[in-house]
Fold this protein.
Amino acid sequence: MIEKLQQDVNALLDIYNKNNPVQQAKKFDLEKVKLTINQMADYIIQNKEEAEAFKNWMEEHQFYTSPASTRFHGNWDSGLCVHSLMVCVQALKFAAVVLADFKQSPLGQQTSDFDYTAEDVFVSTIAHDFCKAGSYKVEFRNTKDINGNWTKKAVFKTREEIRNLGHGNESVLNLLECMPGFIKRRNVLEAVSRHMGFSDLSDLEKINYSNFLQNPLVLLIQLADQSAANWWDC
């Protein structure tokens, strides 16, 4: 299991390294970002019809042009796809180590229910913020420049008409829209739904949140998301 995971991880990282799509947060080649994600999808997603649907969904829903946030990481044009790719890369780097450690734990020795593949890692990381695609608009705010002169500054705002069932849960719905076969991939759905930790949960959902932390893919995606945003500024 770990050996196969590491082989596939290495193959996906080879695709990323060969294309070199992102040098730093705002220094990236958008066409190479798109090429890298598509090549990774073609390599690792087993259901080829769903792989095509996955790629088409991103093209059709402004995934490659949207920001990743209004004020924080990736708050610039195409920040969403750059952030998602960097979360994927971080998760791939950590994937084998995290799973190996989990399998040595008391829980991991008792069950194989929470094993994950490189396909699980790739899909959950690229899709974890699908809810943000097409969710922002540009507004202009009056602000002073360094000389004290008033100027209009473009800022991103969330569109008021957006109906959202919650950050992670909405991304799960978007994923299932293009990849319905993942309806039975519980570990992936949990990882996407709970990637924000406590910050995106209702009071009722918080009651059993600790149960989701038994799933190592949940923790892997949380770690990758935070490290991409805070270490790599993406």
About this structure: The chain has a mean pLDDT of 87. The longest helix spans residues 79-104. The first strand starts at residue 22 and ends at 24. The radius of gyration is 18 Å.
